[in-house]
Design brief:
The complex is a heterodimer of chains A (242) and B (318). Chain A has 242 residues and is mainly β. Chain A contains two helices and 16 strands. Chain B is of the alpha+beta class and 318 residues long. In chain B, helix 1 crosses helix 4. Chain B is elongated and about 110 Å long. Classes of the chains: A mainly beta (242), B alpha+beta (318).
């Protein structure tokens, strides 16, 4: 009886581990922090930094569960290999924010970030959907150059296709387009979830295409209907296979 | 000669048992007697408190806010007269410049009234559909295009804007958006008076229901106030927003019968959600005039019974 029970437990443990391995194969290559200091802040009070960009997060696919700063990865293609990346993390309530430059020697494929946060415990309290992750290919996080957006990826085994964009703009007034070679590939309006405190971002926009998006360089166009005018902004974005 | 009747025999038996319980009770030391009385009484009291029906709340909010929006639940009550305002974007030439007419939002549409701290008010169709009628012509507006403002318009405008539906007052996102624009969204100040309706019952001591004060709360700056369960039947609000020339932003006067309200504010984390304003069972017990009256009656009965038990015990001891 005990042997059967033991076999059952072993099988369950093996199946769980195998499923996890397939769903989120950890990236082997690592992006390392440039410099010694991980720049971040966690507000204990009501002081909230003003977020300065419309796009606060871009990722392909989504996951439930709690945010794990050790599980942030990006898919690199050849044009991005060896380039420095600026990683910005913003909690939706505006209390946590970090912006740091990373560099690695990975040539292509899925690459993870080595995060040395002093607030790992605090940011692990947030659900995944409450932290926006923005990865930009730029030489400096303070550069005026808009750089190229690289969406966050969740493991190489995951079958994710939709591009999910967190925006710092009124969602009902915002529309997104993905453009390649002057042609609009996908367009979406944004939705607002006001069930939580929303400071750094409130709107979520999901760009979808049957069969997924092909690798390559695109332009993400954001149009916000402000009061009595329309404001448009364009962001270069690069999609790569994990 | 006939013997005692069945009822007499039963009564004699009950009396004998009561005297036996009485003897047993009074034979115990004083501290145990107190516990034997207190524990079941407290237990029954809490069962009674928790079985009480929830009181109906009436909450009134008076606020200065840059923004108030509501979901239209009854289109007939949400017709908005437009006087001397410009429509953006203009559907065609006949709606250019300053226009006056009637805005009829459809059910489910979201209407926002906004006015920056200093500036002119505006009306926006945030989502859903609405029809705007002007001088016999009408146009259907979608959320992509439906902002009424005062750009280039003089003269009198709509004296007050009606509110009837599910309300969201203010927005915690008071900082500039990524476009660099500061949308009018901030709740500058507000006062909330919560009243409740007393319990009404056919029992003698529950008189006709009245409103009684529960609490008064100052709303935190840059908060967002809405019903905790926005789709509940009781979660609709009514009232008005208007421009007071002596004050900044919009003066908002609204009321609701929602059972609980939520207050979202900067500094509150997204992980722990919002502050909830609701009436607790204890507040109801100590503030409801009918409840207080009933409890006073109960206390008198208990005191009388205790005295009666005392008397019975003494006689038995004699």
């Amino acid at each position: 009886m005990m042997r059967i029970f033991g076999m059952f437990i072993s099988y369950a443990a093996f199946a769980t581990l195998a499923a996890l391995a397939v769903a989120q194969e950890p990236p082997k290559a690592k992006m390392l922090l440039v410099g010694d200091v991980f720049h971040e802040r966690f507000e204990g009070g009501a002081k909230v930094p003003v977020s300065g960009d419309i796009v606060t997060g871009v990722q392909i696919g989504s996951r439930g569960g709690k945010f794990d700063p050790g599980q942030i990865s990006v898919a690199l293609s050849k044009p991005s290999a060896g380039r420095s990346l600026c990683l910005s993390l913003n909690s939706r309530d505006g209390r946590y924010s970090s912006r740091n430059l990373f560099k690695g020697d990975a040539t292509a494929g899925l690459v993870g970030f080595t995060i040395k946060s002093n607030f790992s415990e605090q940011i692990s309290q947030y659900d995944n959907e409450l932290v926006a992750v923005l990865i930009k290919q730029v030489d400096s996080c303070n550069s005026a150059d808009p750089g190229v957006l690289l969406p966050r990826r969740f493991g190489s085994g995951a079958n994710d296709t939709d591009i999910i964009v967190a925006i710092n703009a009124p969602a009902p007034r915002t529309t997104l387009s993905l453009i390649q070679g002057g042609q609009e590939v996908a367009r979406t309006s944004c939705v607002e979830d006001k069930s939580k405190v929303s400071m750094a971002f409130a709107g979520i926009c999901r760009l979808a295409k049957e069969g997924g998006f092909a690798e390559g360089d695109y332009v993400l166009e954001v149009r916000v209907r402000e009061r009595f005018e329309v404001v448009g902004m364009k962001y270069p974005i690069r999609l790569a296979a994990p | 000669m006939t013997g005692p009747s069945t009822a007499d025999r039963l009564w004699a038996r009950i009396k004998a048992r009561l005297f036996r319980i009485n003897d047993w009770f009074w034979a115990k030391p004083g501290w145990l007697r107190s516990i034997l009385i207190a524990l079941p009484t407290i237990f029954l009291y809490f069962i009674w408190i928790n079985s009480l029906p929830k009181p109906q709340l009436l909450t009134m909010v008076s606020a200065l806010s840059e923004r108030v929006e509501f979901v239209v639940t009854n289109p007939a009550q949400a017709v908005i007269p437009i006087e001397n305002m410009s429509l953006y974007p203009e559907p065609d030439q006949s709606f250019s410049g300053c226009v006056s007419g009637t805005l009829r939002p459809e059910e489910g549409a979201v209407i926002a009234y906004e006015r920056p701290v200093i500036g002119e008010p505006s009306i926006s169709l945030v989502s859903g559909r609405a029809t705007f009628e002007r001088a016999g012509r009408q146009v259907t507006l979608l959320s992509e295009g439906g902002d009424f403002g005062r750009k280039g318009c003089d003269g009198p405008m709509t004296p007050r804007f009606p509110i009837w539906g599910q309300v969201r007052l203010g927005d915690e996102k008071f900082t500039a958006s990524g476009t660099g624009r500061l949308a009018p969204s901030m709740l500058l100040e507000g006062n909330m008076i919560v009243q409740a309706r007393s319990i009404e019952s056919p029992l003698l001591f529950f008189k006709k229901s009245t409103l009684y004060p529960v609490t008064q709360i100052n709303l935190p700056i840059a908060a967002r106030v809405e019903a905790a369960d926005p789709v509940a039947r009781t979660s609709f609000w009514w009232g008005s927003a208007y421009v007071d020339p002596q004050k900044v932003a919009l003066q908002v006067q609204i009321a609701t019968e929602a059972q609980a309200l939520r207050v979202f504010r900067p500094g509150r984390t997204a992980a722990t959600d919002a502050d909830v304003i609701a009436i607790t069972a204890m507040t109801q017990v100590f503030s409801d005039p009918n409840m207080v009256r009933f409890q006073a009656f109960l206390a008198a009965i208990v005191a009388l019974l205790t005295q009666a038990a005392n008397l019975v015990g003494r006689r038995k001891g004699e």
